[in-house]
Amino acid sequence: MAAPRDDGASAVLDELSRNFTYWAPGAGNGSLSGAWYGRHQIHLFGVLMAILGNLVISISLNIQKYSHLHLAQQEHPKPFFKSGLWWGGVLLMAVGETGNFAAYGVAPVTLIAPLGCMSVTGSAIISVMFLKENLRASDLLGMTLAFAGTYLLVNFAPNITQNVSARTVQYYFVGWQFLVYVILEILLFCILLYFYKQKGMEHVVILLTLVALLASMTVISVKAVSGMITFSVTDKMQLTYPIFYIMFIIMIASCVFQVKFLNQAMKLYAATTVVPVNHIFFTTSAIVAGIIFYQEFLGAALLTVFIYFFGCFLSFLGVFLVTRNREKEHLQQSYIDFGNIPGKQMLDPIQPDSNGLSYGTLPDGSDSTKSQSGEKKAV
Known about the structure:
- It is a single chain.
- By secondary structure, this protein is an all-alpha fold.
- The protein contains 13 helices and 4 strands.
- It has a two-stranded antiparallel sheet. The chain has a two-stranded antiparallel sheet with strand order 3-4.
- Strand 3 and strand 4 form a beta hairpin.
- Helix 4 (84-106) crosses helix 10 (204-234), helix 7 (137-156) packs antiparallel against helix 13 and helix 10 (204-234) packs across helix 12.
- The radius of gyration is 26 Å and the shape is globular.
- The termini are far apart.
């Protein structure tokens, strides 16, 4: 007698088999040939949207930077949120992020996430052209490596086409792989949060690891929401399923807390430190999320996987070289060079002891300090 069949589970598996299209061995596989383009036009569309979205983000960041510099040079600067130029940059930022959001709906996470290096390299090019920043040899080398890594990523990313429906997301959401991954991620997040909140440890690695853990959930939920919206437009309405709104809430919440920790890292550390480390951590967490939740490397050849990760390494190295030791040439800092005052000899420290009553002030003739020999020295 045959065992009873679970029609619900069978229907989900049938849908998964229809929604997956794997590459088949043959000519043109692993190269940008005509056959590759024929099989992966939708992927290339997603890549194009992601690259354009990241370039628009680069333009928006430079516009906002120029707006801040322009306001700082005014005699009576107004708040930045009252600047039309700044709001124009914010609008372009929204357009760029919309492009990235749409790209996740039509292409694998492991293909779209590493393309964030285009935002960093594009910003460097734009700042040299329009903000007149210096172009260094390391910038050219970094851009070259980033472009080479992008080529390898696009060429050797998992050749899989998947239509993300609500039933597909539900199936993955309760899978043992994702449940184990979530439990481990929550444990690691709680440990790092304990050291950050209770022990006061604000190291850049701790902060950006918290960002990366949240980013993995952001990427999973963004692809789920974008994929279900795309599926609703092209095939069948998916917005009536509860899983859509669960993923939407996860997406919003993880984005909010991700921005919170990222802003804290930007306050404590220089952008030249935060940007490359955050790019590496974010991309790595996104790739792991795509592999575990959406099983995007299932059936991929070992050589293809190796070249893909080598492309990731090149893009990471390129971002590091572009952002390394970049000078903030346009930031105006007011300071007094006491060493150039004619006829004056500086004997006292410029900044008194932090435990003294005069901390934060410079002594004048009426408030002089005693030297170790008991003589007064006026600054």
